[in-house]
Specification:
Length: 129
Amino acid sequence: MSMVVASVMGRRRRNKEVGEKRKKAAQRSKSGKDLVGKFEMDPEAKLFMTGIMHKYDMDHDAELNFGELKALMIDMNEGCEVLDHEVKTVMRGADESKNFHISREELESALQGWFEMTEEKKSSCCPVS
């Protein structure tokens, strides 16, 4: 088997795995297992989410807009650039109210979406030493 064929087969296998992960995540969201409002967060998690909101909610409207969410995602990405379409994808997935902002109640879902995206992406923007 040539290296080109092996590379293509490996890429197809990874694409299939990513597709399966996305289907499972969509099924969990539809069943309500990932929705913050469906389950009570423990006090420590609530305090953590509140702290994030205070740090990144620059206009103090109790929600994160596109720019504020992007700043949070960049910090979580260890300073590496985050593409606008990635922010839009996370926002679309977590914004249950469909107001183009992330509330504290939607923040856990947004963070989970970003972690899943970075796991899939495994970006090489910042070299691991």
